[in-house]
Amino acid sequence: DMKVTQMPRYLIKRMGENVLLECGQDMSHETMYWYRQDPGLGLQLIYISYDVDSNSEGDIPKGYRVSRKKREHFSLILDSAKTNQTSVYFCASSFTGGHTGQLYFGEGSKLTVL
Amino acid sequence: KTQVEQSPQSLVVRQGENCVLQCNYSVTPDNHLRWFKQDTGKGLVSLTVLVDQKDKTSNGRYSATLDKDAKHSTLHITATLLDDTATYICVVGDRGSALGRLHFGAGTQLIVIP
Question: Which residues of B touch A35 (CB under 8 A)?
């Protein structure tokens, strides 16, 4: 069906709580991404995963970690969330060799940390 | 330092009018450039990808140009519809595969009024 699904879509947490954002894709894409989008800024890459257990830091990895145990699932974890991690988080996927091909985004997960 | 600059920041047009969105970048190397549409509260949807040194693409009412010598791209929307109301995001890829990085602009917010 060529879809990237993010859960949850909305989440409110208190500072210091743990956060788990989940992403799934049904296209067997090797590469998956986590970005955050803040007002007035372009999307910023947090982590990229090239396949199962093959993850690399992006531009802003501090305060985040990821897990990819199955090709179709990619999780973003915030251990002890901070107020400056309030943002909209987007997951995306693509074929590793195909950046000029299709790049699919999920609909976003809006996280508010109080 | 922002490597992808979009202008205008926001734009209001009347339904049926044409509009042009601009993207200037300093990313090097510049393998390809992609335009995305992002409806409010939604994910990014790819409109077109430009690859060649001087490239043109057309996708219905959307057409785009790329001039790599000038590091400049335009997105033209003809006969705008109310559904064109969205943020349009310019993205420059520095490689042709997921091994490269994507550089996102902050977007142009287009509002189409009746």
Answer: 104
On chain B, the residues whose CB falls within 8 A of the CB of A93 are none
Chain A hits for B32, Cβ within 8 Å: 99-100
pLDDT digits (tens, 9 = 90+) for B56-95: 999 999 999 999 999 999 999 999 999 999 999 999 998 8
CA atoms A38, A44, A45, A46: torsion sign: negative
Distance of CA A64 to the CA centre of its chain: 10
Instruction: Name the strand (E) or helix (H) holding A20.
Output: strand A19-25
Tell me the residues of A at the B interface, defined by beta carbons under 8 Å apart: 4, 30-31, 35, 40-45, 48, 50, 90, 92, 94-100, 102-103, 105-108
Residue A65 burial class via C-beta count within 10 angstroms: exposed 0-12, middle 13-18, buried 19 and up: middle
CB within 8 Å: B97 and A96: yes
* pLDDT tens sequence across A10-52: 999 999 999 999 999 998 899 999 999 999 899 999 999 999 9
- Which residue in this structure is represented by tokens 């982590």? A47
Residues B72, B55 contacting (CB under 8 angstroms): no
